[in-house]
Amino acid sequence: MHNLAKDIIELLKKQGLMLSVAESFTGGGVANAIVLVDGASSAFYEGIVCYHSASKAERLCIDKNLLKQHGAVNAMVAKDMVKGILQLKKADIAVATTGIAGSATDSFSTPIGKAFIACGNQTDIIVQEFLFEGNREKIIQDGVDAALHILYTYLLTREGKL
Fold it and tell me: In terms of Cα–Cα distance, which of 123, 129, 131, 128 is closest to 153?
């Protein structure tokens, strides 16, 4: 079976980049997939799980008014999560996940399965929106898989391979 996380580590090493991840609904699953790769420490700096909105504000400096007005599940928050973890100046590139895995929605009636995944560096951040289906476990795993795919594609694009 193809190991996308291994390919990501190889691309990060080849490009001389250090990765950090900021996760919400994926609960550390992206970081776990990365650290399962032998030699990941040469290209992976840290993973932060900011599950609660207050944690996003405190750890990643997400604007509290943005969270209060729009909730944690939107493109702006995903993008700001990437910016927040990159402001720590320890990584060159980051991926962030925010979404609702279920079984209940948030106070903004965000549908279960809705998620935003962001990836980028200090000057170029992309955000993709998803509506995953299935139970909580499947939604989380689909989010991890999507985040890895987005990161891999982003790295290939940087290399001019896409």
Answer: 128
